[in-house]
Amino acid sequence: MELADPIVRKMRELARAASEQAYVPYSGFKVGAAVLVEEGELFAGCNVENASYSLTICAERNALFQAVARGHRRVLAVAIYTPTAEPCPPCGACRQALIEFGPDVEVFSFGATAEQFHARLSDLLPHSFSSKELR
Ligand code: THU
Asked: What is the pLDDT of residue 133?
C-alpha cells in the first residue's frame, strides 16, 4: 500500500474529518483515525477525553473498536491525522490494541503539512505480547 493510493487518501480524509469531532477540552490535541478492514470497509474515530483523565480513549482505538463491534477481525491499515506540522505516531497502547488484529497493519500518519509517516506495525512494536504467550 502506497501513500498515493486512492484508498490511503480516502483514509486520510476520513481521519481528518473525524479529528474535527475530537472531544479534547483538557489537551486541546485533536486526533482522528481511520481503520481499513480486510473486507474493504473503513471505520473512523476521534479521541474522547474525560475529566477523569485516564478514561480518555485515543482516536485509533475508538476507530478500531468500532470496526470490531461491527464484526471485523482483520485490520489492514490505519491512518492517523492531527492538525499539526508533524505527523503523530500511534501511542504504545494503540499499537498493542491494533496488533491484536494484524501484525502487518500498515500505519500512515498525516499532519496538516505535506509531512507523512508510514510504517509497518510490527516494526513499531517488535516482540509484542500476544495470545501465544497465554498458551
Ligand atoms: N492521543 C490519540 O488520540 N492517539 C495517540 O496515538 C496519542 C494520543 C490523544 C489522547 C489525548 O486525548 C491526546 O491525544 C493527548 O495525549
From this structure: 95
